[in-house]
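To illustrate the input format used throughout this study, we show a single complete record. The first block contains the structure-token representation of the backbone; no residue identities are included at this stage. The design step must infer an amino acid for every position from geometry alone.
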């Protein structure tokens, strides 16, 4: 059973259109990949869906964020240097990271913030972190936070784009830039902004969200990893959950004090996907061998391991965070590229399909990727395929049932010899906001929409 406090929190989100309509940070209003708006399509017709607008942008993996009637998009404008995608080598290129703000209804550009930022990372297409928007009320202009691939953290006025404060993880903290760049989306909670920084005693740092002042720092790890922090309630306390290269840990959000630690060490430091919770269980998944279910104690902030996935069983998600709902984990597996459903009781696979990643494949798509979003309290999902198609499907423990698909844009990034779209969409105002390395597209998903 979900805790009373979490149930009340979700009920408030669902009941409040002002909150539920915004997709102000990565993976939506509750941070777990759930979309709460009503009045959307039941299926995608064969004729497709209407496109409201398209605007040109530059490269990046960062998904859009939507808040206060504005869309925020983070990209990279390359100026020189050899750009190549090699998971074992850093490319050196020159260019600028850029935060763009568009009117959500029209696509008109309202402002942009741009700064020079040479890249020395692998897969140097652009920034990884979705902007995080914080608007406290109708009289608050709000702030938008961007974390660039080289560790540039900026806080801007969400309405005007004016710089409020900035930090740099390399210069301020002497942090090492991960080979695939800083990728852990910043998290706002209360008065604090939480970031995964890296280094001795500073794996996670809490900043004052208004001034950028450091409030606390905590933890040492062999590497910072790529996983965003999240907030949850269990064991009678509120907790900040972080996953670095060595373990998942639960911390006191106010002080950084550690409550518990679950050793999970993914290959290549690839702690990427957000640990997902369903009732009193939490699930973590990473490349090749990390697939772990653990139990959250009801009366104190401790955890207990329940199982670890067996070879060629369970699901091993690397690029996209799985969804954990009603005792089933759904995710795209990095080992063979299929969408897989897993029984949360034992880690056994219930079914698998390549339909969301490569419909004509039967055996293997290296790091095949689709980004899953659950629709309200249903078994219907939006899946953004790496092929550039927006898919609607019904996912249950028994089967995958497709409810239509629409080609929104072309895959423009390269991975393992094929073209891909590896960016999580945003869903807000009955609209899907989808990007590749050339354009940002707004797709009408309101009930009755057809092309």
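Output of the design step:
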């Amino acid at each position: 059973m979900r805790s009373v406090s979490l149930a009340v929190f979700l009920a408030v989100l669902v009941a409040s259109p002002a909150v539920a309509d915004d997709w102000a940070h990565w993976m939506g209003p509750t941070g777990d990949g759930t979309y709460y708006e009503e009045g959307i399509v039941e299926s995608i017709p064969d004729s497709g869906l209407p496109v409201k607008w398209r605007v040109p942008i530059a490269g990046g993996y960062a998904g859009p964020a939507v808040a206060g009637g504005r869309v925020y998009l983070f990209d990279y404008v390359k100026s020189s240097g050899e750009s190549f995608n090699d998971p074992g080598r850093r490319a050196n290129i020159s260019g600028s990271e850029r935060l763009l703000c568009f009117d959500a209804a029209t696509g008109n550009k309202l402002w942009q913030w741009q700064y020079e930022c040479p890249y020395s990372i692998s897969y140097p297409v652009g920034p990884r972190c979705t902007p995080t928007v914080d608007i406290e009320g109708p009289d608050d202009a709000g702030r938008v936070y961007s974390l660039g691939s080289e560790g540039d953290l900026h806080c801007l006025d969400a309405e005007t784009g004016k710089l409020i404060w900035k930090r740099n993880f390399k210069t301020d903290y002497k942090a090492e830039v991960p080979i695939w760049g800083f990728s852990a989306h910043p998290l706002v909670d209360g008065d604090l902004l939480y970031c995964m920084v890296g280094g001795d005693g500073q794996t996670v740092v809490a900043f004052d969200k208004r001034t950028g002042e450091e409030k606390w720092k905590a933890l040492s790890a062999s590497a910072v990893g790529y996983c965003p922090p999240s907030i949850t309630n269990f064991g009678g306390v509120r907790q900040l959950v972080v996953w670095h290269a060595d373990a998942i840990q639960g911390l006191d959000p106010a002080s950084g004090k550690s409550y518990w630690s679950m050793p999970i060490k993914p290959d290549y430091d690839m702690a990427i996907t957000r640990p997902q919770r369903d009732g009193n269980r939490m699930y973590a998944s990473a490349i090749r061998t990390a697939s772990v279910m653990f139990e959250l104690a009801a009366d104190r902030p401790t955890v207990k391991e329940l199982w670890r996935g067996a070879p060629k069983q369970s699901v091993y998600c690397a690029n996209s965070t799985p969804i954990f709902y009603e005792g089933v984990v759904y995710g795209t597996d990095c080992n063979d590229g299929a969408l897989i459903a897993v029984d949360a009781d034992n880690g056994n696979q219930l079914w698998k399909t390549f339909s969301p990643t490569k419909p004509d494949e039967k055996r293997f798509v290296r790091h095949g990727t689709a980004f899953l979003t659950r629709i309200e309290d249903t078994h219907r999902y939006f899946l953004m395929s790496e092929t550039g198609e927006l898919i609607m499907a019904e996912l249950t423990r028994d089967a995958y049932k497709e409810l239509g698909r629409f080609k929104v844009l072309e895959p423009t990034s390269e991975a393992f010899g094929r073209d891909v779209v590896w960016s999580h969409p945003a869903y807000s105002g009955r609209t899907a906001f989808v990007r590749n390395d050339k354009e940002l597209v707004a797709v009408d998903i309101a009930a009755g929409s057809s092309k």
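Structural context for interpreting the output: The CA atoms of residues 74 and 99 lie 5 Å apart. The chain is about 5% helix and 45% strand.
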